[in-house]
Amino acid sequence: MAKIGIYGSSFDPVTNVHLWTASTVAHRCKLDRVIFLPCSSKRKDKSLNTTDEHRIAMLEMALKNNEKFILDDYEMNQDSWNVYTYHTMQHFHSLFPGDEVSFIMGADLLEDIAEGKWKYSDELIANNKFIVMARNGIDMLKTISRSPLLRNYDDGTRFHLIDKGLAMEISSTYIREELAKGGEPRYLLPDACYDYVKNHGLYQ
After folding, report:
1. pLDDT of 164 above 80
2. 3-169 domain in CATH 3.40.50.920?
3. Domain range list for the chain
4. InterPro entries in the record, alphabetically (predicted)?
């Protein structure tokens, strides 16, 4: 049985923090693979800053030297903007029957689920395991204990909380803002991706 983590994000652009986070999670949780899942540009809750083609190209460059990292454009290829994590996880469970598939997310998203902001949240929590990464200012244990939904499924294996050394705040947003204002974020994203951004005039 393989252990697989599904790492969804906009990756707009992919950053060195994304890669470092995925590598650390894979090491600590003994994952065999981390699937990088760029979100659909059709989603109404996302405002993306470049095209799917650019995001895919940068991810391909960033992931090519790590055999544990896999790019999957499943959500990008859905016809509808109405793409929900519950259905995405159903897809990956059917794709990897018999394997342990977990959803990787930040503690901020755990709070959103606890507050009922996600569609099919009951079904999502009931049928999946989660690797939850620390975010500054969020107490993950309190988030779970205060939510009837989360605490009633907390059997000791549902949520793998990683609360040490992962609360880094350098984000894709930070990099885009630096580029837009003439800053220099060169060492915050892979060299090939930095060159790609510059060559294509992205985020200017």
Report:
1. no
2. no
3. 3-169
4. Cyt_trans-like, NadD/NMNAT, Rossmann-like_a/b/a_fold
